[in-house]
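Objective 1b of the project was to move from sequence-level analysis to a structural picture of ligand recognition. The entry below was assembled by the postdoctoral researcher (A.K.) and checked by the PI before modelling. It contains the amino acid sequence of the target and the SMILES of the bound compound, zinc ion.
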Amino acid sequence: MPMSQADRQFLDALLAAPSPSGYEQPVQEVVRRYAAEFADSVSTDRHGNVIAAVNPGGELRIMLAGHCDQIGLIVKNIDDRGFLWVQTIGGWDPMVLLGQRVQVWSKTGPLPGIIARKPIHLQSPEDRKVIPEIKHLWVDIGALNGDEARAAVRVGDVITCELHQQELRNGFLSGVAMDDKVGVWTVFTAARRAAAQSPKAAIFAVSTVQEEIGLRGVQTSAAAIKPHVGLVTDVTHATDCPTIDENQHGRIKLGQGPVVYRGPNTSPRVLEVIEHEAALLGIPYQLASLGSPASNDAAQLQLAGDGVAMGLICIPNRYMHSPVEMVSLEDLEHAANLMAAFCAHVSEETNFIP
Ligand SMILES: [Zn+2]
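Corresponding predicted holo structure:
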């Protein structure tokens, strides 16, 4: 089933809003506007998390979490020739930044810039052997000198790759920061769909901040919500492109449904409900395993309060942490429907003790 126009508009608005960790409010404004259409209440906490509550009086409390922050760069110094030197926000492979168009989010709006390096013709044989590091990269905004650049950009301004998207064959969508704007899309779309099914449980959809720099917003938001059950949606590695070993990383394909995790970071009871709902509705999913805590919000959410029964429903993503991350729109639809069905059908009578 293709994505509805309204659902696609929400996704497009999320992808078009910048959100490097600590600078998430432009994307949070998109989330607040969307959630106001269906939630009983929408709030923003001091950390910057946005929380939408559906049926907040319900006895069983479910927290849905998708992180809205994206990896980016932050301006460290502006040199006398007008070039910007940067530090990373989150985990970048410097190779994928070379040749990129970027946007510097200055106080007057986005300024275009580029990241490149010395042309191949001018590189010595030794130059060509060096693998670039972040400290070797600069951002060129076309300024003539330091004074001009410093008038336009301040230390601490953040930079993203140009926020584009490109639709490819088979409903595959490529762009910047699918990680984890597709997760935010999934949990808020799921909350909306669950709200239309008279849920018994209280549902708190959270657009968490600062995941990419240490799973931070999920901790502060869970402290306020005190959930019994947690469902996290992040992207996970699709392994269906060249050079990735399925035996090491599992067999995960774009377009074959969301990825449901098993392992110590997740609850077998939550998995039972997820698999039951998937079978009932004919929703495809891919099983994956993790022998340790996940490297996403699920790791912290499980430890909130006196323990949270966790589910981890991920979106397959090719080329994670690059400017051309790729997901399947169909996987998003299925993930939202699966999460909505879970929320609509559990209650205080469901057993979440393993
Ligand atoms: Zn992520």
